[in-house]
Amino acid sequence: IRVKTMKQIILAVLLAVVVGTASATDADQNSWSFMLRRKSTCANTYTTLIESKYYANNVTCKANVKLALQTYNKTACPDTKQGSLVWTCMSGFDSTTNQTNSALINDWTAFLSGCEVLYIADRANTAESESGFVWLDNSCFGRYVNMNQFVNYLRGTGDSGGNAEMNVIRFFHIMIAVVAAMFLAQWQSS
Fold this sequence. Notes:
signal; membrane; transmembrane; elongated; transmembrane helix
């Protein structure tokens, strides 16, 4: 009876950890409001690096890019795929030369390196690196493995971000299988 009780306690603790982790996240994570709670100076950084330099005379770009950054409800998102208005504005794509704007892309990189508004996993001090992080599919943009993948998206040489939803599902399936295998081995040996 004692071993059975111990197994039930361990199972209950593991379930509590999984459920607690799954709920330990902000509904607006990696959105504009989330970013400002973490680092309030990011609004000024965005205005200085991006808005005033590139969108001062382009109200359409200014409004659509900001909408894509501020929205954390996918049904309200503007299109951000390559070739879309938002992508064109963010990349500085010139249809005459068929080129993107390197200076603008560098400024996006500088801004996003210090301000956490998109899902770019491999950058310093991101929410994704914190314990208890659970990815929510709430961004108008895809989930990028690192800044290079995001830069490639802007340059038009990469995709619009990974399908993180499927990656998360696969990860949990693997974790469940590992935990089940561990418990089965433990039960068989006792």
